[in-house]
Fold each of these.
Amino acid sequence: VTVEDAIKKADTVADLAKLAQHQGRKKYCTEINFFTSEMYKEINTERKYLAYLEDAIKNDEFVVYLQPKYDIHSERITGAEALLRWNYKHEKLLSPSEFISLFESNNVIGKVDQVVLKKVCILLSEMKKKNMPLYPVSVNLSRRRMENRHLKEQILATVDFYEIPHNLIEFELTETAAYSDRDSMLQLLSDLRDLGFLISMDDFGTGYSSLSLLKDMPMDTLKIDKCFIDSILTSAENSRECILLKEIIWLSKMLGFCCIAEGAEQKEQVDFLRRCGCDKVQGYYYSKPVPMAEFIQKVIDEQERLQKECC
Ligand code: C2E
Ligand code: MG
Ligand code: MG
């Protein structure tokens, strides 16, 4: 091992320690860690991604896929969620699990989230020009972005520049990350809602203090996490999981929220959710996330089908 190599490794170990200590990432957070070559590789990949981020934005490598949301009764499209993919150096498509938490913990998630919002606005404005039916599109809002005091102004500047009605943009707040300032987060959500944007709580039932947030969070929609939807297939109807799922749907309706189930893959799940009073479904049963052009085609196909049914 050369001196340079040793210094490089020591730097990496220091980075690793910092990651474990500051970034709330549980993965390497035990008292004693054994440094493996796999960890070394991972840290180097992460550094590479971070250093390349600005260029990736300039090179337009971030691609937005849309996953339609369906009304559970009419089985028609009622909206969509924007989900990010990274066409890394135009060589391979990276999924969000490979970079979102890295960007969140390094406080650069706002840069990509802003790209997503802009692309969604461009799509909606194109659909508007073509006189197509318009549905609300949701974008994910990482809690870490709430620390940005100019967030509301940034969002408004983008949405208003493209003249998109605010009620066509929905923000999905994920609850996997602990928040440092609950009051300012609730204030920001309330401001966004007052401006006409829609707010939903993502991945409900996992993560932090979901029930206590239900009490205070200004919101329109509750998205039930996929793990509850999975239990329809794996557990009996009187199991704890299924009882919880039914009660979450009931609670959501009683609180006046729209209720959407994430990750339904089979008819049996959709039928169960419908019986329980769930309003909407987003899952592979209806559609996987698809490129924007494919989403537009789905909307056109649905319109044509409905027109034929009318005649
Ligand atoms: P999410 O916001 O909860 O998005 C739902 C995830 O579930 C998506 O994964 C979607 O592809 C997947 N999914 C939906 N239906 C099904 C199904 O029937 N079966 C299965 N197996 N999976 C299904 P994806 O696209 O990999 O995104 C993962 C997470 O990454 C998202 O979870 C969200 O938290 C985050 N993410 C994605 N795009 C963005 C973004 O633009 N900004 C931020 N901040 N986070 C994002
Ligand atoms: Mg989401
Ligand atoms: Mg979710």
Amino acid sequence: MSKKIAILPGDGIGVEIVAEAVKVLEHLKSEGLDLELTEAPVGGAGYDAAGKPLPDETLALVKDADSILLGAVGGPQYEALPRELRPERGLLGLRSELGLFANLRPAILYPQLADASSLKPEVVAGLDIMIVRELTGGIYFGEPRGIRTKENGEREGYNTLVYSESEVDRISRVAFDIAMKRGKKLCSVDKANVLEVSELWRETVVKVGEEYNDVELSHMYVDNAAMQLVKWPKQFDVMVTKNMFGDILSDAAAMLTGSIGMLPSASLDANSKGMYEPIHGSAPDIAGKGVANPLATILSVAMMLRYSLDQPALADKIDAAVGRVLDKGLRTPDIMAAGCKQIGTVEMGDAVMAELA
Ligand code: NAD
């Protein structure tokens, strides 16, 4: 049966990098994979086309799709818009409307790019961490929220950090399942020494862990986790944490690898329907210049094949093709190194296609 893939390029370099990933999807189609690709606007492009960052037609398309490939959203021209019309609202809307509660953020250091990391090669060589971040709960969504004026006339901002047992239970299960398929080590990151929410989080993770005897479960306070990530990141296999902690730690982990242009991500619902996207933004500083690295988006297609389309062999093929392109010394400017050949977005997409063919 045909799988419906919604293609949402978004804004800035999103358009350029998604075009390269679509080449890969078209190639898979020509090899017999039954895919139906449909493109729609989101973010600033959604605002331009339909007056809101998540147009009704785009929402209907993604709800009907089996998987979604997203580029990136945002740009300086949209920053003055009211908050509810800003591109980022389109992204938050997609996550909450589709119930994409599990964000998978791998931080992998390709051996060919070991010099790109700001840490010593021996600290990061062979790095392969999976951060599982809760994505639809916690302080980014908690109510009440707002800015109010106190009796003395001073304004104060407030947000609510709240997690129910069922929310922690389901994200823990995703993390334990992934740990089972990897190194069987899971570190749950919280702030249980200060926050009641974290106390409940830890209790719930421990309870779920009783069903996963093969996984070695540990706990770490988020401040220590931030230190350990830069001190000795290879101690981690899978990490699971709440929305805000995961937001910050996964970006720190990403930088250990040297380039955000290399890292894909997945956001999954309870039935493994997923939205796949590079971790970076729309990079307005290089948009339209043909220099953006499309590999994170192409690797997002590999994640889609692995986690939503049940095609692990094809996912391996794409990962291997990217590895061979790096072996040949082909580099976009963000990962350029001495002795390598600098190429642009389209050439990088073509190089991966050549390896796949
Ligand atoms: P960014 O990730 O867009 O860019 C940060 C830096 O990394 C820039 O110097 C950029 O040129 C570079 N970079 C990013 N992706 C690259 C790639 N594929 N190849 C080469 N270089 C790359 O972050 P930012 O500048 O903070 O944000 C720009 C816009 O993107 C903002 O509007 C922000 O809100 C938005 N944003 C969107 C998402 C998303 O759509 N998921 C995520 C983060 C930021």
Amino acid sequence: MVRAIVGANWGDEGKGKITDMLAKESDIIIRFQGGSNAGHTIINNYGRFALHLLPSGVFYQHTTSVIGNGVALNIPYLVKEIKSIVDQGVPEPKILVSDRAQILMPYHILFDEYEEERLGGKSFGSTKSGIAPFYSDKYAKIGFQVSELFDEAALKEKVYRICEMKNVMLEHLYHKPLLNPEELYATMLEYRDMVKPYVCDVSKFLYEAIKAGKNILLEGQLGSLKDPDHGIYPMVTSSSTLAAYGAIGAGIPPYEIKRITTVVKAYSSAVGAGAFVSEIFGEEADELRKRGGDHGEFGATTGRPRRMGWFDAVATRYGCRIQGATEAALTVLDVLGYLDEIPVCVGYEIDGQVTKDFPTTVQLEKAKPVFEKLPGWKCDIRGIRNYEDLPENCRKYVEFIEKEIETPITMVSNGPGRDEIIYR
Ligand code: GDP
């Protein structure tokens, strides 16, 4: 059975925690899109980890962790991340990398930096991990697949050809040092040796695994609203964040994805630029940011403070719908225990009209939030394991959100730890 774990919001919903938890009953966990640009924070018996490229299932000895073809593969980063968890006492994980995954090249990171620098105040707020230049090259058909590392003559010829193109941009648009093709080729050979132990025909491996009835998780990065097609374009990421893309980014049939567990955060947070209708500012935001997540809402990759907001039912219902959510996991509910009243954004006012439908970006820029206030529960709910034991106002909040998002909430997370979960 294949199950996807994806985000309904702008990312940072707590997918890592839910994946780590569900990985206990799974055989294979797959990353199918994105790269090392966003992080998942996981707290388990080995300690606290910020994973960027590895799937959140790497902490179990019975699981196989897969980097699918849809991922932007930063090879030295992968090796570094494996080493860092092993150094922290985690048993050597079993890892497979698709021979069709494309390689994030050193110049992708440079181009990401240079472009943000060139855009200045109009930048996208990129994490400068090279993701946008990587996917641009992939679809411009000038990227490198892992398999290409194993044909030296063809590789060298292509490296020279690509450098010629890249150097035009470096010289005339960015006014930066040029690439040296010999050096780049040598780096590629190092990459080949680093990745070699993990390379696999992933799609075939998964075909056999599905036939054998294995339990498979697809772990998404970021969330619905960062999807390049259905999100807040252009303030989006460069690969699809939707469960549907799991089929493509892993190489499995779409109809095999039976469950789509959409992770929904009990309040909103976002990184990077773009419209964020339920955003809050000043002290109100500082307080929520300080209390959020497992120790504050700061980017797992960049450490920068996240933008904060109240729960946005308009965006989240849409986020669940485009994911095709079969269920939702509501996370970080414990964080809201300090509030007397909790505002929830239930509508957008655009040009004097209130709508409950999530609009395109042009309209979104004009949207003002319509808030409804729910009573708070004013206590710490961590440690509670039965839904019925939650305070009444807390259950009302969950049930209000469930109705708004039109998706059954089957799990409520009330703490960052693996066991801090309430099943309904
Ligand atoms: P992801 O990218 O979706 O995996 O999310 P992140 O890891 O960036 O952000 C989620 C943050 O919230 C992490 O710091 C988690 O440890 C933390 N977290 C997850 N679930 C809960 C929860 O239920 N309560 C609290 N307090 N923190 C949580």
